Amino acid sequence: MPNRLPEANAANLTELREILSLQENAEKLHDIAMKDIIIEAGAADNIIETVKGLTSGTNVLMVTGPTLIVDIHGNNIKEKINAKLKEAYNVEWLVIDEPGGHVHCTPENAALIMERLPGKDILIGIGGGTICDMCKYSVHNSGMETPLPLIVVETALSVNAFSDDASVMLLSGVKRTLHSRYPDVLVIDLDIVSAAPAEMNVSGYGDLIATWTAPVDWYLSSTLGMGGNFHVAPSDMIRSQCDKLLENSEKLAANDPQVIKDLANVLTLSGLSMGLAGESSPASGSEHVMSHLVDMASGVRKTGICYHGTQVAVSGLMSEIIWDYLVNEFDPKSVDIEKCYPTLEEMEPKVKAAFSWLDENGSAANECWSDYQKKLTKWHANKENFVKFLENFDEFKAQVSGWLKKPEYVAECMHKANAPTRYSTLNYPVDAKTATWAITNCHLMRNRFSVIDLLHFAGVWNDEFVQKLIARAEAMDAGL
Ligand SMILES: [Zn+2]
Predict the structure, then answer these.
(1) Percentage of residues in the chain with pLDDT exceeding 90?
(2) d(CA 49, ligand 1 centre) in Å
(3) How far is the CA of 328 from the centre of ligand 1 (A)?
């Protein structure tokens, strides 16, 4: 029987569950705790039926951000959904806003939602990733005996995180991914997302560029005993559809309806891949850490935070160049194993020096060191695996080569999609010094292991090496 996983359809959860149950080691995959995902034109028009499927109650809390959102017909969709709901329900409409109109995903904003939940029968969030993450977080942390059902109406294909069970929250200025919950129903109305600003849908496309590096980082980490419960299914589920999306980059730039629908499907599947794995590793590897560092620097640089996916894609090109080096140029025989194990005492000042400029009291540096030292300790404890890895390097390469893409090809596709390929052309331009700092030091930020840690411990990763990567990117009209 042919494996139908590569053609997975996020909008048919029953079929998707059945396909997943037939995969090898299916018992290791986590459940998708969602009732439905609707991807179709006009899906938001059926909001009353969607609510009825989840509750017989009559009190609705509707949460949005402050921005005006219109569909392809020119309708103000928040007004439209509110009016429709009012035909059958008592509706309270809460607008989350901040001075300047840029809403952050903070526990303080989530508290505004939480205090209105008692007495309601359902929560409906309408918006982008921030509203979605806050609604998921609020229901999860409401403390109510029976958590309220949650519907999310996604207004742009900007990130993959609508369909996972985590929320990225800003805690005292530091971005942290916290376990929260899935929406019960995710509504992707193609009439709404097609009308979103082009750079938002390009951001979703950009988040998917991680498909060519994150799963390989995950596999590497797992092979070396450095963490992660690797499973092939989460990435196998999206890889060929991501491939097709790259081929259709030009059509994405032209807002082709079929390609927008394909993007909606594969982006949603990418969110599910993280839920299935029980960790974000299938969609977040070395490219995401570089992007996190750029975000961390934005506070000191007093600039806004770029569209997540576009920044991830620029970083993704760098990660692809690194992986391309590993499989084509890295020589395992050149590694002096005894030099691959720096001590905690040697690394602590290096990690702290990398992050000390981010704040006055060194809290970011301490936070990064506390996570990094766990990785370093584990690295020492898993020496045997690294020795085996070097001995069996050809086997490893054979396993991963089909999962990688040539960076030159990806850059060419991104150009066709009108996606930024340089840090300096992001919506908040990142200067060369900050971008180089982020690339050079990203492995020092957290516990998760990637190809950059491997090259660092193997003695390859240094300023000169990073300059070579940047030069290769430059030749593709990409990088800084
Ligand atoms: Zn992402």
Answers:
(1) 90
(2) 31
(3) 27
Cα(271) to ligand 1 centroid in Å equals 9
What's the CA gap between 265 and 271, in Å, rounded? 10
Domain ranges of the chain: 32-196, 202-474
Structure tokens, 195: 């009308």
Distance 132 CA to ligand 1 centre (A): 14
Distance 288 CA to ligand 1 centre (A): 7
Level-2 CATH architecture, domain 202-474: Up-down Bundle (1.20)
Answer yes or no: are the C-beta atoms of 351 and 368 closer than 8 Å: yes
pTM for this prediction: 0.95
Q: Counting beta carbons within 10 angstroms of the beta carbon of residue 183, is it exposed (0 to 12), middle (13 to 18) or buried (19 or more)?
A: buried
CA 275/CA 267 separation, integer angstroms: 13
Burial class (CB in 10 A: 0-12, 13-18, 19+), 394: exposed
Can you give the pLDDT at residue 1? 66
Strands (E), 106-191: 122-127, 150-154, 166-171, 174-179, 185-189
182 C-alpha to center of ligand 1: Å? 16
CA 58–ligand 1 middle distance (angstroms): 36
**CATH number for the domain whose boundaries are 32-196:** 3.40.50.1970
* pLDDT per residue as tens digits for the range 92-120: 999 999 887 778 899 999 999 999 999 99
pLDDT tens column, 214-262: 999 999 999 999 998 999 999 999 999 999 999 999 999 999 999 999 9
